[in-house]
Amino acid sequence: MDPGHFQVSPEDQEGYGRVIYDVHKALDDAIGELTHLAGRNSCVVVLSDHGMGPTDARNKLLPYWLESLGLQRFQDSGSSSRGRSFTQRGYSAAMETLAQMYRLVDRRIGRETKMRLAGMFPGLRRSTEVFMQVGKTDWPRTKAYANGRRSEIWINLKGRQPQGIVEPGTQYDELCDWLSEQLLRERDPVTGEPYVERVFRRDELYSGPWLQRSPDLIVRWSQAGWIDNMTFGERTGAEIKRSVGRRDPIIELGSGHHTLQGVLLVRGRGIQPGSNPEGATVYDIAPTLLYLMGESLPSDMDGRVLTEIIEPDLLAARPLETIPAGVETVGRRRVYDLEDEEIIGERLRGLGYVE
Question: How far, in Å, CA of 306 to CA of 348, rounded?
């Protein structure tokens, strides 16, 4: 637990300061036991495509930054309680009640109960969170929006979004360029440090047939500055977090987030002890595992085999082999039966990855 995090009190540090450390120690012990049970002829891989670290709620405040620029509009924005219609006031009250119920349920029920609910109602948690985050967006007046979960900005593009208002082409490109410039200009008013390291356009990071499903802008935050000091119109980040935390459980409950650097530990037959793959990416994991399993690599597969972690004798005895894209190595391929596929699907649904 980070004692300097804005959500950590002295009481939290005293009561839970060692919890994360103890959990990781227990996981380390379990990995050691599993490695022993797997035997010396097996290869054990521990992998995460991201790390974890504290967050000062930068992602969660992106919608409010866009609102301060007049780009993401909300159904009750710009209206006093007296000026809003009965329907608008009722909608806002319903959203606040839903958020309070969500927060209460998330804190009170145990993990096993959550997993059972996830199995009974696949995708319910994600759908509820998305509804609370963007459900009150006024789409006919919104040019760009964020949901507060990730450092992503979407353009409300005509012809792509159901109520898109930004024209494709020049207007789209100019809005993306302007947003990027505004983000890179943001500085902590106290320290002068930039909040943003870089802003990517979607085609700088992604490719392939599903490119249109990617966000339009991806923000890489810097490690400098403190978002509480940033101004959003007439309010600071700290004031927004205090005012919206009551009705936005995503801001209140979130104290950590993914970091860029992942984890890769490999041990076993054919692996060089103490080796360190320089510049490894998540793309390299699949081809490396295929090679270690004795499979050929499709010619169109992204990434590379991490040969620097593999013993030279194995590489000499079994050189890298590629096959044309689309060709299956039927003789060696294990086909999942329906029961296997259902188990995998159930686990993915429980994690919220598939509906």
Answer: 28
Query: Is the model more confident about 263 or about 245?
Result: 263
| Residue 211 burial by Cβ neighbours in a 10 Å radius (0-12, 13-18, 19+) | exposed
Q: What order of strands is seen across the sheet that includes strand 144-145?
A: 144-145, 152-155, 217-221, 196-201
Q: When comparing pLDDT for 235 and 24, which is higher? A: 24
Q: How far apart are CA 240 and CA 134, in angstroms?
A: 17
Cβ(249)–Cβ(57) below 8 Å: no
Burial 38-56 (b: 16+ CB within 10 A, else e): eeeeeebeeeeeeeeeebb
The residue ranges of every structural domain in the chain are: 1-38, 53-259
pLDDT band at 82 (very low <50, low <70, confident <90, very high): very low
Residue pair 257/52 in contact by the 8 Å Cβ criterion: yes
Please tell me the distance from the alpha carbon of residue 69 to that of residue 181, in angstroms, as a whole number.
Answer: 13
How many distinct helices (H) and strands (E) make up the chain?
Answer: 13, 12
Residue type at 336 in one-letter notation? Y
> What are the helix (H) ranges across the chain?
10-16, 19-38, 58-68, 86-108, 111-120, 124-134, 170-185, 202-205, 237-244, 249-253, 285-292, 312-317, 338-351
Look up residue 257 and give its two tokens: 């987030």
Task: Indicate whether 254 pLDDT > 80.
Answer: no
Bridge partners (DSSP) listed for residue 200:
218
The amino acid occupying position 200 is: F
pTM listed for this prediction: 0.70
Query: How many residues belong to the chain?
Result: 355
26 by DSSP, 3-state: which? helix
Confidence of residue 354 (pLDDT cuts 50, 70, 90): low
